[in-house]
Every structure is written in C-alpha cells, then in structure tokens.
Amino acid sequence: MGLDDLSGGVEAKPSAPPNRPAWTLNAYVGSVTVVGLAALFVSLIEAPPVKSLTGAAWVGNPPPALTILALAAAVVIGELRPVPIPRGGDAHDSITISTTFTVALVILGPVSIAMLAQGLAVLIDDIRGRKSIDKIVFNLAQYMVAIASARVVFCAISGTGLDGVFSGSAPFVPDAQNFLAALAAGLTFLIANHLLVSAVLALASNQPIVPVFFEDLRFQAMTAGVLAALGPVAAVTVEAQPLMLPLLVAPVVAVYNSATLAVAKEQQAYHDSLTGLANRELFRDRSVRALEESKRTQTPLAIMMIDLDHFKEINDTLGHQVGDELICEVSRRLHEARPVGSTVARLGGDEFAVLLPDVPDLSVAEDVATYLLSVLSKSFSAGGVRLVVQASLGISLAPDHGDDVHTLMKRADIALYEAKRERARFCAYRAEEDVHTPQRLAILADLRSAVDEDELFLEYQPKINLETGHVSGVEALVRWNHPTRGVIRPDDFIPLAENTGLITPITWFVVERALQQVRVWQDSGLDLDIAVNLSVRHLTDMSLPDRIAVALERWGVAPSKLIIEVTESSIMTDPKRAAGVLQQLRRIGVAVAIDDYGTGHASLTYLKRLDIDELKIDRSFIMQLDQDSSDAIIVASTIELGHNLGLRIVAEGVEDAATLEWLRGLGCDKAQGYHISRPTTAPAVSELALRLQGSEPKEATPPLRLVGNR
What is the DSSP letter of 451? Predict the structure, then answer.
C-alpha cells in the first residue's frame, strides 16, 4: 500500500475545503519520513546477532534463519504481484499479497527482518514503476512506521514485553493469547498503512482526513483483512516446516483470483462491449463525482451529447458490420481527441456523451465541441467503403443549466435536438427552446386527447390576388379550444407536438378539415385554394404523397387547390429526402410553397431545383419596410428573382394600405396580413371573398370590414 496505490480517487468530499496552511503537507510527509527511517535505524542497531538465528536455539523447530528467509522471499515476491481492488465504476486500487508474509515476520521477529524485507520489496517495486525519489522515500518510511506499530501491538498483547519490540525473536506459540495478538498486529499494520497514506491524500487535496481514510478502507478492508489474517497461519506453517510455505499459495492465490475476477466483471459492467468506451452507467457515475467536485470548487463542468447524422441509413444500406466498424472508428477518434481528464462514453447505437470537468465557461466547451466535430468530419473507411459522416452535438453547463446529472444530460439532449433541427452542428442549451417545462408538459398531457375529443378547430387567413384585389385562397391555421385554458395558439402546442410524435395526427386532422372546407366553398361557388403547413417530420415520410392523394379523392378536390407549405429549415434538415417527397407531391398536382422565406439557409437556385411553385416572404421583412431600407431592397430583389425563376410571390405580414400598394407596384402576386384580415372563420372568409368580388352572399351574414393596423 504505497502513495500511488490510491489511484481510484476518494469520493468523500466536503462542502467547503478545510482551512489548512500550505506547509502542513510537507510537514506531515517530513515527520513520517523521519519517524519511519528512525524506526528502521533503531531496529538494525537492536537486532540480535546473526548466529542466534542460525543455531538450533528453538528445540524441535527448523533454524530461524530458514524460516525468516522463506518469509522474506515471499514478501518480496508478493509485493511485485499486487491484488486489484474494485472501487466502483472502472476505478480500482491495489494491495499486495506481501501483507500476509510481512505480518508473519512481525509476529516472529526480529522486526528488523520484516523492515528489511518489506523495504527491499518497496524499493524494487517503486524503482520498477519509475516513481520519484520523494515518493519512494515516503513509501519506505510509512511501511517502517506501520511495521513498528504492528510489532508494538503484538508484543503488548502477547506478553512478550515492549523491550522485545526491536530485539526480540521467538517461535510463535499457537495459543489463544498469541492468536489474538497476531490478529491485532495484522489489523494495526493494515490500519496504520492506510491512515498514513490517506492523510497524504487528504492534505494534498485539501479534504478532511477521517472521511478519506474510511472511504478508502471501505473498499480494501475485506481483501486486505483476509490477507492480514493469514499472517499467523503463515507463521505457524513456516515454523513447522519452511518447505510447507507453498501450501499458503492456495488461499493467497484464491484471494488474488477473486479480486482479479471482480475487477474484470466491473470492467465488463461499466464499459461498452463493442468500443471499450465507458457505458451509460459509468458515465453517470463519473458525472456524479465530477459534479460533486464542481460544487466543492465552484468550477463549472459541461456535458455533451453527440450522435451521427443519418447513421441508420448507413446501417440499413451497408449492413450492421460496416455500421459497427464506423462506430468503433468514431469511438477511437473521440477518445483520442478528448481533452485530458474528460470522459467519452457510448450510450448506445450512435449516441455518445462527453464529460468535461473544470470548464471555465461555455465558450471553452464550444471550442471543444468545434474540435471534436472537426475530427469526426474527416472521411472514414469502413467495410472497404469511404464514408463522410457528419455529427450533431448538444451542450449543457453546470450549474447554469442544472445542478444534477439527470437534468444536465436531458438538457444536453434537448440542445442536441435543436442542433439537428437548425443544422447548426452544435448548440448549447437554451431555456426558451425547452418544451419540457412543467407547464408545457401539463399541456402535452391534454394534447394527447385533443384530437379525439374534437377540441381542435381551424381558422383561415385570407390571401388576396394583388392584381385583381380578390381573395384567391386561404392559409389553414389550427387552433385548440382547451376545456379550461380557452383557445390556445399553435405556437404554444405545435412545438410540443413536433417533439412527441403528436404532430402526425394533428397534421392529418388539418388536411382533412381543410379539404372538407374547400369542398364546401366549391359547392357554394367560391373557387379558393388552401394552404396547409407541414413539419420537418413529414418531409422525410415517403408515404405522405399517397396519403394526400387519397384525401383529395375522398373530398373531390382538385390537387391544384391544395398548397403544401414548408420552411427552408425543414427542407435543409434532409434535402435529399425532402426533394423526393416534394417531387412526388408535384407529380400528383399539389402545389408547394416555401414559408417564411429569408429566415433559413437555402438559395433561390437551390429551391428551384426542388420544383416549387410559390415563395412566401417572411413577415419580418415586410413589417419593417418603412423603417429599414435594407428590407425594402431584399423584398424587391426577391420578387424580381422569384419571377425570373417562374415562382409566385406571396408577402406575409401586410399591416397597412401603404405596404399593400408598394407590393402591388413591385408586381408581388399575393399578400396576406392583418390589414387584409386576421385568421377567421370559414363563413367570414366567404363573406369577405364575395364582397371583394362584388357579389352578394347567398345568406345574410354580419358585415366584415378590412382590419387595419394592430
């Protein structure tokens, strides 16, 4: 048990570090070194003459020299074969099987032989391990103190007398008193050894000594205790016949194998079998420890979640063997690129996590994220195929984003989802993007039954043709009439639906009701088209065009009367699949519009390759036309370029007559906004459409006037 043997770390952490002077560690190490070396010096001076150990002084027993030589050799050999001790997770310490034979030498005496044998073993082991001189000297001294303490206890209990601590040597009589003394000596050796080393660790890490000592002893007591208890057995055995020492090999080897097997099982339990990285359980364990240290030192830490984009397609197309090779190579790169002191784990599939302790601030974590993603962006070779794989990454920072591991991992996962949605490579957690607040989760529980309970309904925002001034169509907007909260706007529940899969039934509710209303308008003589919004989830659903075709046929609506609106961001999430879905929609005659144009990342040329029909300029450009000349230039340029590409242009957010006339002058095709009409009911749309056409409605309805500025 040396200074470097406590490699597993100590979990006991105070809430605040003890207030100790900086010199206490050096003073303690110096004191132990002086006492230990002094004990060795005194034992050598007081050692009995060599001839007393070579004669037949012990009648009926082998010469003491043979006994002592056998035990000393066992001490040296045993020190070089440490026993691993699991500490939980993948951390482990080690103790040496020399403990058994050192305790036996302490019992038999003289203590100088035990010190010399143990000292020689420590020197060999520490020099072999290339430890520094100061550690070698301290390890040697602390063993001398532990051995001297054990000898004092044995002499005091056995009746040998304290005057025989350094000079005494006698055969071990196996009676009750001596066995009790031997067990006490072994326990003293074990406790003194751990206490001396634990004190160094506590002083070096500025922690209380007692918790550190007991935390360490808790992990080693069973194995080390068994080895110490075998000390008197070894003493009796070698006294009876030194050649019987090999008989002790069996129980010692059993302890060694048992401890080794325990470490191997923990290794399997806490590591991913494919990659060898830490698994989810070990990642959580290390994160808990790091978070405790973070709270103690007031230093932030970061947790990152990473997954590969389109890994499922690679796995399905090239096979699981290639997928496994790719995962192994990703794991290797992440492990090699990780900062010192960090942990990389594979959570399952293509999901990875990174723990970054001692992060000064979020910008440092973002720098690490940039580097890790750059490492992964280089091409891979798997199964003879060259692959280019992109990854997305989410970051959470403690304590800013949470003070427990579960919350931090969940919020890093939320940030990962945002990174994927925004195609931003990586994102840090933002509270405003988190749909998992208690209030929203309460709404989510009710949303699950909203479709079945007929709580959803549609409103329609008219669009007018700027050339004729007539209503040309509407945009269908879903609303939720909550039984206790009243009408809830889509901004408050659509993000929830998109994150939970509820967006699918809601979307099909909107499609069916919208087509049903178009049919009603057709039967009343109104020729209006209707626009329905699709989320990113539907743009990767290759069955979508067929389902829409069935719905159109069911309601007897021409495909050209349905406009599917999608955003730039949703298209760019998976451009290839989106292009395929949109192309199928165009084939059946459905029109496609790009909603909120100007806020995403797609160019007009790219959008033209998607075979779209209509661009809707985002309201943020339209509403500031009278305040920002740049917006006016952007809108005018977009209208001209869109027309050159054969696209219809719709302006959103028209809120006054001046803006409407300006857009008409630029040749914009359609407009919608509060100046024309707020989202309203189907009968109100009918009344507005007929009035703008100069026709009278078939049934009397309340008059509807154009709405001015908000």
Answer: T
- 342 HSE (CA, 13 A, CB side): 23
Q: Are 9 and 198 in contact (CB under 8 A)?
A: no
The residue count for the chain: 710
Listing DSSP states for 120-135 in one string gives HHHHHHHHHTT--HHH
Give pLDDT tens digits for 265-308: 666 677 888 898 999 888 998 999 899 989 888 899 999 999 88
Is 700 or 409 the better-scoring residue by pLDDT? 409
In this predicted structure, what is the pLDDT of residue 439?
67
Tokens of 686: 């009918």
Q: For the beta carbon of residue 411, count every other beta carbon within 10 angstroms.
A: 27
In terms of DSSP bridges, do strands 591-597 and 614-617 run parallel, antiparallel, or are they unpaired? parallel
The contacts of residue 668 (CB under 8 Å, 6+ apart) are 466, 639, 649, 650, 651
Residue 47 DSSP code: P
| Spatial distance between the Cα atoms of 127 and 121, rounded to a whole number of angstroms | 10
Binned at pLDDT 50, 70 and 90, residue 12 comes out as: very low
To the nearest 10°, report the CA torsion of 272, 275, 276, 279. Answer: -30
- Round to whole Å and give the CA distance between 302 and 397: 4
Two tokens at 618?
Answer: 């985002």
Q: Are 13 and 205 in contact (CB under 8 A)?
A: no
- Angstrom distance (rounded) from CA 650 to CA 474: 12
Q: Tell me, what's the pLDDT at 61? A: 47
Judge if the upstream peptide bond of residue 82 is cis by omega within 30 degrees of 0: no
Tell me if 618 sits within 8 A of 652, measured CB to CB. yes
